Amino acid sequence: MKKIIILCVVTMILSFTAMSNRNLYAAEWPSDKITMLIPYKAGGSSDAMGRGLAKYWEKYLGVPIVIDNRDGASSQVGTTIYSRLPADGNTIYLGCQVYFSANIITHNAKYKFDQFDVLNIQQEDAVEIVVLNTSKYDTAEALAAAVKERPGELTCGYIAGGPQNIAASVLRKEYGWNFKSVTYDNGNALRTALLGDHLDFMIGNSSGDISITGKAKILVVLGTKRSGLFPDVPTFGEIFQGNEFPNLSMSTFIAVHSELKEKYPERYEKLLSTYQQALNDPEYQKFLSDSMQAPINQYIGPEESRRVNQSIHKLVEKYKDELTVRY
Asked: Which of these three, 217, 239, 261, is where a domain ends?
């Protein structure tokens, strides 16, 4: 009997010690660096967002956030690497739609949509139609009329495989815009073509198009919300009454492995709470304002971000045959 009592006491002590160690370990996490994997080259807009955020987020996490750029195959290389890492919260992911979904749907990526849990779609950069200031199509209505009067003649440029590509597909398939498509690998090449008068119009995005506003003008936003950078420009639905455009934008998000919340709920909550603290940091808000990111920055949270991300995924599925993804 005495041996049984001693055994029970020892078992209780060991259990209590193990529980205490687990709680201590959880409380101390993270004890080392956190890595932010960005599946794009250093120097781009997504990289700039990630690096700017990391500087302030690490203040609240208490450890450095190290940027790991893994570019290639329109983000598929880096995203594949992230999907195979342990779901322990030590690496977070920065992604961009529609490239994220396009790789899954059109290029059979080795990861799945539901492997990623989006904490927040932090930036929604409006997609829009742009013409030169010297263009004779000075309104969206004038451009639409010209496209329909001269089917297949006007040239439209956009980036292959991105939200601009989806927007072009919507214009063609849903609203009968018949134009010649010229696709580009990046925004600089696209805008250079417009400025060189090689295009009648282009489909761009606000944060990039702001660089050419002295020589070009935005006619209409191809989405459900006006651009934060150009709030006076109406949406497609506002101009063409009854013709609503899908909820489309260049959406940049922060995500973790979907297993993290269940396996390490305290880590998930710490990442989310410190991320919110970083977004509300006055110095970070000043940085966003100074870098002109503030108008497209937001916090909509995990639930709404998940809903928006799923709607974009369905949009890519619908227009997958129209997507041109270049590697």
From this structure: 239
Three-state DSSP state, 260: helix
**Tens-place pLDDT, residues 277-297:** 999 999 999 999 999 999 999
Positive or negative torsion for Cα 116, 119, 123, 128: positive
Mean pLDDT of 82-86: 98
The pTM assigned to this predicted structure is 0.86
Last residue of a domain, one of 191, 208, 239: 239
pLDDT of 150-196, one tens digit each?
A: 999 999 999 988 999 999 999 999 999 999 999 998 899 999 999 99
With contact defined as beta carbons under 8 Å apart, do 129 and 248 qualify?
A: no
- Do 90 and 181 lie in one domain? The reply is no
Same domain membership, residue 135 and residue 109: no
The whole domain housing 153 covers: 125-239
Sign of CA dihedral 126, 130, 133, 136: negative
Q: How far apart are CA 318 and CA 49, in angstroms?
A: 29
Q: How far is CA 281 from CA 60, 161, 278, in A?
A: 10, 35, 5
